[in-house]
Amino acid sequence: MTTNSNKMSFMDDKKTTINDIRHHLRTLMRELDVVKGIFLGTGFTYAQCHLMFELSQHSSINPLPLAKKLLLDKSNLSRMVKRLVELGMIRSKQSKIDQRQKELSLTAKGKSLIDRINKVSNSQVSDALEQLSAEQQETVVQGLSLYADALRKIRLKSEADFQAIEQKRNSK
Question: pTM of the entire structure?
Answer without folding.
Answer: 0.77
